[in-house]
Amino acid sequence: MTTKLEPGSPYPLGATWDGLGVNFAVFSSNAEQIDLCLFDPSGRREIARVALPEKTDEVFHGYLAGARAGLLYGFRAHGPYDPQHGHRFNPNKLLLDPYAKQISGEVRWSDALYGYRLHSPRGDLSYDRRDSAPGMPKAIVTDDAFNWGDDRPPNVPWSETVIYEAHLRGLTMQRPDILPHERGTFAALASPQMIEHYKRLGVTAVELLPIHAFVQDRRLIEQGLRNYWGYNTLGFFAPEQRYLSDGSLTEIKVAVRRLHAAGIEVILDVVYNHTAEGSEEGPTLSFRGLDNSSYYRLAREDRRYCVNDTGTGNTVNVSHPRVLQMVMDSLRYWVDAYHVDGFRFDLGVTLGREEDGFDPGSGFFDAIRQDPVLQRVKLISEPWDIGPGGYQLGHHPPGFAEWNDRYRDSVRRFWRGDGGQRPEIAARLAGSSDLFDRRSRKPWASINFVASHDGYTLADATSYERKHNLANGEDNRDGHGENYSSNWGVEGPTDDEAILDIRARAARAMLATLLFSSGTPMLLAGDEFGRTQNGNNNAYAQDNPTSWVDWTLAASPAGRDLTAFVARLIRLRAAHTILRCKNFLHGREEPAPGVLDIAWFDEAGLELTAGAWNDGGERTLTLRRATRGAGGSAPILTLMLNPTADDRTFRAPPPALPTTVLLDTAAPDAPERPLEGDTIVVAARSAVLLYAVASSGRRRNHAPPPNDLTGE
Fold first, then answer.
1. Which of 97, 251, 346, 550 is catalytic?
2. Contact between residue 245 and residue 187 where contact means Cβ atoms under 8 Å apart
3. Given this model, what pLDDT does residue 631 score?
4. Which 3 state secondary structure label does DSSP give 30?
5. CA-to-CA distance for 318 and 294, rounded, in angstroms?
6. pLDDT computed for residue 1 by the predictor
7. Which secondary structure element, helix H or strand E, spans residue 270, and what is its range?
């Protein structure tokens, strides 16, 4: 292989092997020169350094004849070191290719990784001349060839989707029936044992916390902790190497293909809002050294400083066309090369923020919505950040679903018995149409959850009232302060059977609420059998059994029973169309005489009046939904909710029909049975689901009733 570079091509960006050589292309608007640095297979010795010979449309490029896949490389960028004008070029710092598709090694922390001299009186205005290459990971030239055979995306309709949120590593680290070297990797994710579990539950998609290559924060390493969650991206095209049991990218593709064969979709949690380089005082690893003023949003009044809308020190400048191109190229790459089925965008508000604030018509959203590849996959946004106007739940454009934290908080508050929750829980049960029923959006736009990776597990939400985060090394100051949880009398573990019974009832009631609400349900991995983090509600740094899923719980009698209960809930959701309705219901249609498509009642079976809705002392609620079925039938489902501390007698709303009790969360193992008469005792902190079928009459449209709390 010669080290003489030919001009090559400015596209595609990154390193592209064509069988005869490798084309290198990297964007920088402000660099004066970019050097390609080649390394020996160990990555320890730089064996060649040569300037990329051409620059076209602000892309430096060159072609290395004879180079092959497997070559290790990096860049060095020459240009002004002028932080006060946003420029931080320092050719002493080896830079990772933003388009690197595989990475060798990891960041080994030392002061040499910073473009300035740490501890200098001039701070980041100083200049560091030490070579950072010994502590930097290197990019690897890859060959993306793979035989996908007859792989096809499951294309599960949104209305039938049930998401299982999991951390790739933590999900299987404690699975004794998986080979030790495969635990915590893609091989384990798609192992027969795990696929059997997904199928037994009935989930249709796994949503993985970040699997893009990320950095272990220096502060955490020095404290003996790890960046477990992975929200600290180093490269948007490369997977985290330790998630590969054999080091091969093929492992991901095999895993996706196996999951697809089982009808399971793969959704990636992606972090395009910030990078691992942190604030202006952070290290120079890639983007900062290539073109700081293009890749990052900088303060208008002083371009020395990064805008920090993310709380992590920097904000990726997706308003820049080349930076937006990188994000789009990354998303398409994961769909095209790995066949993933969707993305969940961390801090999605940041991505949609333009100079004047959040804009659902921003360049980022517009680019995705018109893209022929991306518009056919599932798109989910986390609709908040810490920037100005940072809470935008319900304000994203059509085509996007959104994490609904109001759903989580409402369900927790309702079931712990808070007063005044009737209107709020009613809106959440009905798909949060008060938030999402605009611009022809559908109920699936609300991603409903009662627990996620960020916060308490479901078991902890019923066992702790105070966060227990001391292990994070932040004096218990991190994590949410208000979790709307209850310990029901004892903080943490207890042997008190009465308290354990209350906790179990509350957990089952919340799970039933989740699966019987309109919208897209998301289940946190392990909640189906009572996983705990011992009260830690911000376990981002706990790469240990605190965060890992404890599968011994799944094998316990209580764990097996709860898993079977969750599977039953999902089967019921799949069996009844009205539980996964494709459109919002507003009580304006009458599928059967005297039966509206959605209506609300008290425990006596009487329609709620305006006064009853506003009575903060009343807590029980009955929701009835109906639809037009086949052959002139009108299936009716009635959900009775009793969050109080006492058993209550509920009366089924008229008309009187033969009715089946499909589920009673107080008796989760009880089979379906006929309802005798028109009343039923709903136990304390429990829910009951009833089923009946009426004969549909001529459809009549109704004006929205005065208690139409789910409409606009």
1. 346
2. yes
3. 87
4. coil
5. 9
6. 61
7. strand 265-270
Would residue 346 show up in a list of annotated catalytic residues for this protein? yes
| CA distances (Å), origin 188, targets 37, 167, 243, 407, 449 | 36, 12, 10, 32, 25
* Model pLDDT for residues 457-485, shown as the tens digit of each residue: 999 999 999 999 999 999 999 999 999 99
Residues making up the chain, counted from first to last? 712
User: How do 87-88 and 54-56 pair as beta strands?
Assistant: unpaired
* Contact present, 217 and 300 (Cβ < 8 Å): no
Mean pLDDT value across residues 546-555: 97
In angstroms, rounded to a whole number, what is the distance separating the alpha carbons of residues 577 and 589?
16
Report CA-CA distances (Å) from 71 to 25, 143, 403. 15, 11, 41
Instruction: Read off the tokens for 541.
Output: 């740094």
Residues 247-269: what's their mean pLDDT? 98
d(CA 641, CA 621): 5
Mean pLDDT of 191-213: 98
Distance, in Å, from the CA atom of 119 to the CA atom of 116, rounded to the nearest integer, reads 9
Q: Confidence class of residue 3 from pLDDT cuts 50, 70 and 90?
A: confident
CA angle centred on 704, ends 703 and 709, rounded to 5°? 175
- Is pLDDT at 2 greater than 80 in this prediction? no
**DSSP letters spanning 157-168:** -GGG--EEEE-H
Which of the following is catalytic: 382, 385, 434, 454?
382
Angle between helix 557-575 and 192-201 (nearest 10): 60
- Location of structure tokens 């933590």: 170
pLDDT at 709: 42
